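Hypothesis: this fold can be encoded by more than one sequence.
Test: take the structure tokens below, design a sequence, compare later.
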């Protein structure tokens, strides 16, 4: 059963050419406005317990969508149905009266949500305990910092588990301790069956909290899918818009297949350098063309990532590596136009799409030199995959003119998840947990008793 259901949802606002237009229409004159659609023809179903991230640039229509779902804004077109109690944290301090105390505002906010919070049922104590604002609970809200307002607003919105929880960027305000506390409560609600709609510019948080994402651009739903492909498409569009020539990059909006395991290896040899090396045209012999590109990949005319392959330290093409064994990523690129300062890079991502590591030849301090039409380059990055056992993918990219901060003036190509590999631990590996193995060393030595040291210090 759908907890949320939208069909053809849209919101339009009237824009008048001058300040008298509205009055003229009201007096019976002809139409003096134009309709601006902040959101247009949005349809989706969200099941109970789903966690859905909504991403997009400022002004894309994300907040407008949430306001229509909560009923604070009436849609111009379409319908939206919700089933169950909705708790929303849309705007910082929305609904709080600045002259009333925090406690008084909690009672009023509870009434709006259909919850009686009077101090006799333990709910007020729960709000106070979670918000952790101390005696400020009995001070006027106008004396609160933005972080304190968020603490109180989130605490009262989630004092009772809702059927639908909607959060719009508000948690970006405040300290990291309280943010983590909020995310822990959100995860607990999600696991208990609460439907989550989460708007955030923190893509890492969308990866962490959400099993699904929607990308809205210019009021239109561009993609509804896994966080991985939705975020990839969003980031690729951001890169494309940053180019001087708006048509310089072609972005893959939805791939026919996202089969990262189908990347074919090309011939190559062991890399001796611990970082990277550049090969020549002769090494193109036997290289295979890459398969269809994944969502969020992009490319430009005159530059082609011809192949990406993985090798072990003996030069054998493989997809399984021991964590203490050298892994070589080989990228072959062909150029049909002149590039004055080309650079190459790769990225390792986990199955959810989160980047664990990325670097480029520019970031590693290499000066490759210009290339001419008809030339090719073979690049090999080598490293030991000191990461948790599991499956990972490799993304490859090409750019031009590196900046001092590590970025580039011109993006040329980026192929998402064009190769995959599995990391396994050696049988004699030392035990550790986490994502990245820092390979720490440890020393233990006798020391003076801390109690004795404090006692001696008290006599000076």
């Amino acid at each position: 059963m759908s907890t949320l259901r939208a069909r053809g949802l849209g919101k339009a606002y009237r824009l008048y050419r001058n300040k008298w237009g509205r009055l003229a229409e009201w007096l019976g004159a002809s139409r003096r406005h134009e309709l601006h659609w902040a959101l247009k023809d949005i349809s989706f179903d969200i099941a109970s317990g789903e966690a859905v991230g909504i991403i997009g640039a400022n002004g894309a229509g994300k907040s407008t969508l949430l306001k229509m779902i909560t009923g604070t804004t009436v849609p111009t077109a379409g319908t939206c149905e919700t089933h169950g109690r909705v708790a929303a944290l849309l705007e910082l301090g929305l609904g709080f009266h600045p002259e009333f105390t925090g406690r008084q505002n909690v009672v009023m906010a509870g009434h709006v949500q259909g919850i009686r919070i009077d101090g006799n049922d333990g709910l007020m104590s729960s709000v106070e305990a979670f918000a952790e604002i101390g005696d400020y609970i009995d001070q006027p809200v106008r004396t609160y910092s933005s972080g304190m307002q968020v603490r109180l607003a989130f605490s009262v919105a989630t004092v009772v588990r809702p059927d639908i929880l909607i959060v719009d960027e508000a948690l970006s305000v405040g300290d990291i301790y309280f943010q983590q506390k909020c995310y822990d409560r959100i995860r607990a609600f999600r696991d208990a069956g609460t439907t989550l709609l989460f708007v955030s510019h923190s893509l890492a948080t969308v990866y962490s909290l959400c099993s699904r994402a929607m990308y809205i651009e210019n009021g239109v739903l561009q993609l509804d899918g896994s966080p991985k492909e939705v975020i990839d498409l969003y980031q690729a569009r951001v890169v494309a818009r940053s180019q001087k020539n708006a048509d310089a990059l072609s972005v893959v909006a939805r791939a026919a297949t996202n089969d990262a395991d189908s990347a074919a290896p090309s011939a190559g040899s062991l890399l001796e350098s611990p970082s990277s090396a550049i090969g020549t045209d002769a090494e193109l012999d036997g290289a295979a063309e890459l398969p269809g590109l994944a969502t969020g990949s992009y490319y430009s005319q005159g530059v082609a990532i011809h192949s990406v392959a993985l090798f072990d330290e003996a030069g054998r093409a493989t997809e399984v590596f021991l964590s203490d064994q050298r892994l070589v990523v080989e990228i072959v690129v062909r150029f049909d136009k002149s590039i004055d300062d080309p650079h190459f890079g790769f990225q390792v991502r986990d199955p959810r799409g989160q980047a664990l590591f990325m670097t480029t030849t520019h970031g590693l301090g290499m000066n490759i030199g210009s290339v001419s039409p008809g030339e090719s380059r073979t690049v090999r990055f080598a490293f030991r995959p000191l990461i948790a056992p599991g499956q990972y993918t490799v993304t490859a990219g090409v750019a031009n003119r590196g900046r001092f901060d590590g970025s580039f003036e011109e993006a040329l190509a980026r192929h998402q998840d064009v190769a995959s590999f599995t990391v396994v631990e050696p049988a004699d590996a030392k035990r550790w947990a986490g994502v990245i193995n820092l390979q720490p060393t440890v020393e233990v030595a006798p020391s003076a008793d801390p109690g004795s040291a404090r006692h001696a210090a008290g006599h000076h």
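Residues 207 and 227 are 6 Å apart (CA to CA). The longest strand covers residues 408-424.
Hypothesis status: open.
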